[in-house]
Design brief:
The complex is a heterodimer. By secondary structure, chain A is mainly α. Chain A has one domain. Chain B has one domain. The longest helix of chain B is centred in the last third of the chain and has 34 residues. Classes of the chains: A mainly alpha, B mainly alpha.
């Protein structure tokens, strides 16, 4: 006789590792050289060049171009951390694996965090390459002494953004498609997160909306690190980014739990 | 005895493809984002960046974002449609049908043009509200005609891309990578002459580069675009668009024959 205690439960770490390795090859569709090279090397360059020329046409000087270059170098993180991660829900539904996933006894936090592991690495690479472009092509000065604080800022931002992607993926569980959410948040940061101009130049309600996005805090921490602000002020921003990461991951897991329960009771999750 | 081939009408196929595109859009409006929401955001960002630079910079923002709207539809809509056909297993039956695939694509591209124009209208309305009034346009009627023509030049690029997408499983990759590169190359938000001179020949390969330059000459007083001016821009736009459309017809014919001979259409 099978009892509940006899049900096999994979370990936390095994679930996390399996998801970290398998998800990029399946639902995330990451494990392709063209995708990685494009995301890490080409998109940051083209996006930065585009906005640099727009700023130049608008009469912005070298400092405005440098501001935009750093902003877009960091903003391109959204492609791998938010857009791709958010789409994992769609992939599971389309491939018919969502129902199977939901009936597994795997630890959910391990499952979702594992899925975010490779996107975090790709996000780190994207920002690193973007910042190299900013320094080499757009004259952004990044003193060597700021590198340690910059690394911490970038790592925290990557975690927060992937958490945000998972959160959107959780919301998308209940939608027909996640692509709309992914697309909206792919671009909205360009307007509301201080990527191309200081957030203070926007109307106050839009500034509040920007404050909700992890990209805003991550970008501010990265800018503060580059400009060599004191450790205390950078640490304050780190706290904000870390808080955004914790809230995002927590809310993602909570949302998935709610929708999972609902899906199991109604049997409707795989509809799309 | 020769097998009787069913009668088909190219007009009917084009209309059916157009109708299906509209129905798919209504059933699953995810393309609303690349065609309308993203351009509005780009328009607002550029509006903010151009703030204080003069009234005619509004035109830059509207033209650029309007073109992005159309490009989103062309690149994503046309390209994605072929990819979806392949994924759903409908590409082979469509190509095997007696109607040339070009007319199926044409129907889709027509919808892309229409929704791109709607997107352009939305961008215009948003900028109108944000800026508190319309941008000054010297010759509105000519501007409207030329704007529609620029959409057609974009559609011609979309048709070529669609032909190419039949061959490749990397349509998604090209779409993502090509987006900003195309915006830069065609100067959708700024004059191409701002780019390094050696890149200009590449830009001139694309019909929208010519069309957009002509549009700016028409609508922005004192505009410094290509030295040859408005009329040569217009001639270049017409010429390159004609070449693109002719090439598209030829390429589609070849692509169809080739994939039927090789039988590798559904590989992806």
């Amino acid at each position: 006789m099978t009892t509940a205690s006899m049900v096999y439960r994979p370990s936390f770490w095994r679930t996390m590792w399996t998801n970290a390795v398998m998800a990029p090859r399946t639902s995330l569709g990451f494990m392709r050289v063209d995708f990685v090279l494009g995301t890490v090397f080409i998109i940051p360059l083209t996006q930065m060049v585009f906005f640099a020329f727009v700023v130049q046409l608008g009469g912005g000087g070298a400092s405005a171009i440098a501001f935009t270059a750093v902003g877009n170098a960091v903003a391109t993180i959204t492609y791998s951390s938010v857009f791709s991660v958010c789409q994992t829900t769609d992939s599971e539904k389309q491939q018919g694996t969502m129902e199977h996933l939901l009936v597994t006894p795997a630890n959910r936090f391990a499952l979702y965090f594992g899925r975010g592991f490779i996107p975090i690495l790709i996000s780190l690479a994207t920002v690193a390459v973007g910042l190299v472009y900013a320094a080499v092509l757009f004259g952004v000065s990044i003193p060597l002494s700021t590198i340690p604080t910059l690394i911490v800022s970038v790592v925290l931002t990557a975690f927060a953004m992937v958490g945000f992607g998972l959160l959107l993926g959780g919301v998308a569980l209940y939608l027909r498609t996640s692509i709309i959410l992914g697309n909206i948040f792919l671009f909205v940061g360009l307007l509301l997160s201080g990527v191309n101009f200081p957030l203070s130049s926007l109307p106050v309600p839009l500034q509040w909306a920007g404050d909700v996005l992890p990209l805003t805090w991550g970008l501010e921490a990265i800018r503060a690190a580059i400009s060599g602000d004191s450790l205390t002020s950078v640490a304050l921003l780190w706290s904000a980014v870390a808080l955004a990461a914790v809230v995002s991951f927590g809310a993602a897991v909570g949302l998935w739990k709610v929708f999972e329960r609902r899906a199991l009771s109604t049997g409707s999750i795989a509809r799309f | 005895m020769e097998t009787a081939v069913g009668h088909y009408s190219r007009t009917r196929v084009t209309y059916s493809a157009l109708r299906l595109s509209v129905l798919q859009f209504l059933a699953d409006p995810q393309w609303l984002v690349p065609s309308m929401i993203a351009p509005v955001i780009f328009a607002l960002v550029s509006f903010q960046l151009f703030r204080g630079a003069g009234p005619y910079f509004l035109t830059y923002a509207i033209l650029g974002a309007g073109m992005m709207s159309m490009w989103g539809q062309t690149l994503y809509g046309s390209g994605w449609a072929t990819g979806q056909d392949r994924e759903f297993g409908t590409l082979e039956p469509t190509i095997q049908a007696p109607t040339p695939y070009l007319y199926v694509v044409l129907g889709r591209v027509l919808w892309n043009v229409i929704s791109g124009l709607v997107g352009g209208g939305i961008v215009y309305a948003v900028i109108l509200v944000v800026a508190g009034g319309p941008p000054p346009v010297i010759n509105p009627v000519a501007f409207a005609f030329l704007f529609v023509f620029v959409m057609v030049t974009l559609a011609s690029v979309g048709v070529i891309f669609s032909a190419f997408y039949v061959y490749t499983r990397y349509a998604g990759f090209i779409q993502n990578i090509g987006e900003f590169a195309f915006y830069i190359g065609t100067g959708c938000m700024f004059p191409v002459v701002l780019l390094p001179f050696y890149t200009n020949p590449i830009s001139l390969v694309f019909p929208p580069t010519w069309g957009l330059d002509a549009l700016r000459y028409l609508s922005i007083p004192g505009y410094h675009g290509f030295a040859w001016g408005f009329w040569w821009d217009l001639a270049g736009a017409v010429g390159t668009t004609a070449v693109y459309l002719a090439t598209a017809g030829f390429v589609f014919h070849r692509v169809e024959r080739h994939v039927l001979e090789v039988g590798n259409l559904s590989y992806y």
